[in-house]
Design goal:
two-stranded antiparallel sheet, two-stranded antiparallel ribbon, 19% strand, 74 residues
Length: 74
């Protein structure tokens, strides 16, 4: 289930609900635990979900291409 944001200026309006980037989610030995003691519903929704952009981990950039000296010859 997707979460609808009111502030569309900074974030995508459809954010997938995930406890890893909820303000109530906390990291505990590699697992995300809800501070409110809630679990995601089977349909993927949570009534207390509040998006925290600082908890999102950016994707790793793709590796740089290896260049050969012949690539720079005219």
């Amino acid at each position: 289930m997707l979460f609808h944001r009111k502030n569309k200026d900074y974030f995508d309006e459809n954010i997938e609900v995930d406890c890893a980037y909820c303000r109530l989610g906390s990291d505990f030995d590699g697992a995300v635990v809800c501070k409110a003691g809630l679990n995601l519903e089977p349909d993927g929704s949570c009534r207390k979900f509040s998006y925290d952009p600082l908890k999102r981990k950016p994707f790793a950039p793709p590796p740089l291409r290896e260049y050969d000296p012949d690539d720079f010859k005219l």
